[in-house]
Design goal:
Elements (H helix, E strand, L loop, with lengths): L7 H6 L4 H46 L13 H15 L4 H4 E10 L5 E9 L38 E9 L13 E9 L24
Helix pairs in contact: 2-3
């Protein structure tokens, strides 16, 4: 028996399975958009958490100090260590201790009236250096203009110092860092010190011989 072949015209006109083919072509694009949207949403939430934690650390640093009656309130190395421990606990799954870095700076006014990073302390294993200066920057003269972006410098006043916090965390993706805007999230925050603080000497007392959380 001779086989009958469908005419080529009928084959071209056949629309069976067309929707399935179209879906197969569109699916990679849809998945790309979905994955990108999920990663962007997760990145945004993580950045918000980092920003809030930086604010919390700076706020707490502006409040610490040993209560004394006869002189301005000094801060201690132990208080700073406790502050870092509290920040790590508040950070929770951000895992600041092993995947992040907190850089806390005490910004004050030097003898020439210029801005001076009198002290700087760090916490966390991440390799991340301050973008705005290290301890001792601005000790002399007035060339150093303060900490923060060039368009929004934070400065101390003659009546009170400022604490400046930088927080960086390695971003943990849901899918892949290839979908994220960056692999590291960094935020800054600053607060004027709430009480009259003792900035004599190094600016930090260590009568208890506590470990010093230096940045190097």
């Amino acid at each position: 028996m001779r086989m009958r072949h469908r005419p080529l015209r009928a084959l071209v006109a056949d629309r069976h399975g067309l929707a399935l083919i179209e879906f197969a072509l569109v699916l990679p694009v849809l998945l790309t958009l979905v994955f990108y949207g999920i990663e962007i949403a997760n990145f945004t939430l993580a950045r918000q958490r980092v920003s809030q934690l930086a604010l919390q650390v700076a706020d707490n640093a502006s409040r610490i100090g040993v209560q004394e009656v006869l002189r301005n309130r000094p801060i201690t190395e132990r208080q700073i260590n406790d502050l870092f421990t509290g920040g790590a606990l508040q950070g929770g799954s951000l895992d600041v201790a092993s995947k992040g870095r907190i850089i806390l700076s005490g910004l004050t006014v030097n003898s020439s009236g210029g801005q001076w990073i009198q002290w700087q302390r760090c916490f966390g294993s991440m390799a991340f250096a301050s973008n705005y200066g290290t301890e001792g920057t601005g000790a002399n003269g007035t060339a150093f203009k303060g900490m923060g972006p060039s368009t929004a410098k934070v400065t101390a006043s003659a009546t009170g110092p400022v604490v400046f916090a930088e927080l960086a965390v390695a971003y943990t993706p849901i899918i892949s860092t290839a979908w994220a805007p960056a692999t590291t999230i960094s935020e800054i925050a600053s607060f004027a010190v709430r009480d009259d603080r003792d900035t004599s000497g190094s600016g930090i007392r260590n009568d208890e011989n506590a470990p010093v959380s230096r940045c190097n």
